[in-house]
Amino acid sequence: MRDEVLVGKILEAVVKAVNVPVTLKTRTGWARAHRNGVAIARIAEASGIAALAMHGRTREDLYLGAAEYDTIAEVRAAISLPLWVNGDIDSPQKAAAVMRYTGANGVMIGRAAQGRPWIFREITHFLRTGRVMPAPERPELASIMLGHLRDLYAFYGAEQGLRIARKHLAWYARHQANATEFCARINTAADIDTQYRLAENHFQS
Ligand SMILES: Cc1cc2nc3c(=O)[nH]c(=O)nc-3n(C[C@H](O)[C@H](O)[C@H](O)COP(=O)(O)O)c2cc1C
Question: Is the domain 4-129 a CATH 3.20.20.70 member?
Fold first, then answer.
């Protein structure tokens, strides 16, 4: 983001090289004193990208402090591309409030979807009806989690899948009283069949 001319060159080159829509995700700038998100958004629009997502922090911020949405509201006023707002959105109510505040067309969710992939339908439901959807009951939670687990094993294979599944299972279990013991068991499971069985017993019990 520090080299705006280079940003334009990269985006134009990518847009020209592929025949699918190109989207861009950026932060609001590279440092708090240099929030050039609006300039980058204008460059992105001129280069022919299809949509922009913006995280309400600068590179210097890392994950510190709270995301700010004022720069994203300024971006909304400056460009007409579809715009997704990102950063610290962890509930349907917050998604609605941040969309209203910034004027963004949608939200992008990172951490709040870890172990809670149904957050997207909860947000859609709230935006459509203004009502909060009840959290999934145990059997549905188990079915979503086990489906995710099977997909991880199929995609990454037995060896890598076993390791990658650990963090996801920990996220699914993080609000449960016995999460620590459960994680200790699944982290030491020797193979995916054992890990799957442990997860199945835990979430179905
Ligand atoms: C596990 C993880 C991986 C991420 N990987 C990327 C990435 O590859 N590219 C990227 O632009 N942002 C990445 N991010 C940042 C997120 O896209 C997002 O901007 C950030 O987490 C703030 O949104 P949140 O508060 O909803 O998590 C990642 C975040 C997490 C938690």
Answer: yes
